[in-house]
Amino acid sequence: xxxxxxxxxxxxxxxxxxxxxxxxxxxxxxxxxxxxxxxxxxxxxxxxxxxxxxxxxxxxxxxxxxxxxxxxxxxxxxxxxxxxxxxxxxxxxxxxxxxxxxxxxxxxxxxxxxxxxxxxxxxxxxxxxxxxxxxxxxxxxxxxxxxxxxxxxxxxxxxxxxxxxxxxxxxxxxxxxxxxxxxxxxxxxxxxxxxxxxxxxxxxxxxxxxxxxxxxxxxxxxxxxxxxxxxxxxxxxxxxxxxxxxxxxxxxxxxxxxxxxxxxxxxxxxxxxxxxxxxxxxxxxxxxxxxxxxxxxxxxxxxxxxxxxxxxxxxxxxxxxxxxxxxxxxxxxxxxxxxxxxxxxxxxxxxxxxxxxxxxxxxxxxxxxxxxxxxxxxxxxxxxxxxxxxxxxxxxxxxxxxxxxxxxxxxxxxxxxxxxxxxxxxxxxx
Amino acid sequence: xxxxxxxxxxxxxxxxxxxxxxxxxxxxxxxxxxxxxxxxxxxxxxxxxxxxxxxxxxxxxxxxxxxxxxxxxxxxxxxxxxxxxxxxxxxxxxxxxxxxxxxxxxxxxxxxxxxxxxxxxxxxxxxxxxxxxxxxxxxxxxxxxxxxxxxxxxxxxxxxxxxxxxxxxxxxxxxxxxxxxxxxxxxxxxxxxxxxxxxxxxxxxxxxxxxxxxxxxxxxxxxxxxxxxxxxxxxxxxxxxxxxxxxxxxxxxxxxxxxxxxxxxxxxxxxxxxxxxxxxxxxxxxxx
Lengths: 430, 288
Hints:
The complex is a heterodimer of chains A (430) and B (288). Chain A is of the alpha/beta class and 430 residues long.
């Protein structure tokens, strides 16, 4: 039997108007003058020009058959959120159309409409109604929701007394039980502890197994690879590729990098939510301290992240993820992994920073690698993430075994301490 | 500039889910009231939430619902009674003023609540779909509880002063409906405008004050010269207040044909408000 099309998107586009460049007031006189000039300027700015509009999404077309789990990946600002907003009817497209078969529920809205003064019980009812669940459905699922959230004891306490983890668990529990025909998941997996994340992923695959359509937006290539078969890659508001997930991830992780070994973030690439963290640059350097796109496997490699903090952050940690272009994670490391630095930088003051890590020599096999960066406070907040910030090549010349011109399997290429011992005397029994 | 609508095609087959097409369209907007009906439980829950949290963390709690109109009554009675000495058509001044403050309180509260409502629920608007009309609507409905409490106070006062409600009391719900319609009409305009122009927040106190002065709360509309009566009736709240006094106290001035003008103006406000709100609705999530 041919499967129905759950989502059909055709030539979808969304244009946003952005303000012109805003300059800071320097003097009282200027700000006074501006006070009077502003209303006039605001009236004049009513006109749409090429400079004050951007297309967050343009010419996007794709189809999702019923029951498919489709992954959506793309850099910050590629249009992922805009696409989800259109599909969940929050905002309207500027051109094109989307035909959606069934009710869309999204995990974009975890905790939306929660009121701090209301108790957990009351918020479940309210949130259920906001998510469009009929009251009978909320009532019949109430116990299940409470159990899933794990906050039974505090169900009659105002949620303003909840810890952020409890709050999130309760919010997710409601959203996870709404049983939409099409589920849209965006990045919820980034918050909460490991056990909770497992629950979330479990719920999502349950939904998929039940034959419902899922649109899964994530920055985690490993989750995308594990949970989806097909993936859409967005680039600058356009569909760069729709292909099987391994192919799409490979394309995404290996494309669009400059050949310099250095990455700069421009203001428009930094989401507002990352405040007060501002990434500035990421560099790959050889032992000579030179920025390089290609490093040698036999030499130590320095990774350097440059960033600004506009305000002090307590418990901030900067993470580096190293991935292969197939999306396998090689390792994850944080700049405050060592107890010394963890103590010393318990609170990072506002200022300009460099976090530097040295990868030992004889670590990586030849090939292309992708560095992802992330700034977060454990279990509290993720400020910034760019899962494909920079790519670099590793050259294996001089590495163990290069006398044979074959491709070595494996991600790492350590220099092992081999010993070959010849025993004098008889042969072992044959 | 693009306006967009959402068309819903319910499938003939009951098991198959409805197909929704999202696309931009140009031209007239549909009110789509059926969607509102589908989300009727949300109207109930949001109203309930507003009522539930309104007097949280206050010492007097729901006592404020009684105190607010009482204090208003005392202030207005002193100023307009003792200083200006305006006529009350023979009723005790507290009763005369309080009966008008009932619908006026509902109206003024609706104005300030709806004006703020969209911003207060910004989080929901930018994240989920639901008919946006629900937000100002539930703000207006939330005021009905305060109204009911104040009505009980008025009935108590009438017993104290020995005033019996007349048979005209049957008309009270109709005047209440007129008050709600007017409040909703103005509220829709204010809430939609406030999404784009935050100036509304600054204009609102003056608007409320001005509106109070052109409504016969502290004085009787019989003070208005004959030639201005028609102009005066353009304010639907004038009709509402006169209607309340007539229905509750049996005041001499039964609502006449000028009432028709009030009803007409209220309807125009409501319908135009609905259309303006729907027209602006598609851009709410982007501009708020």
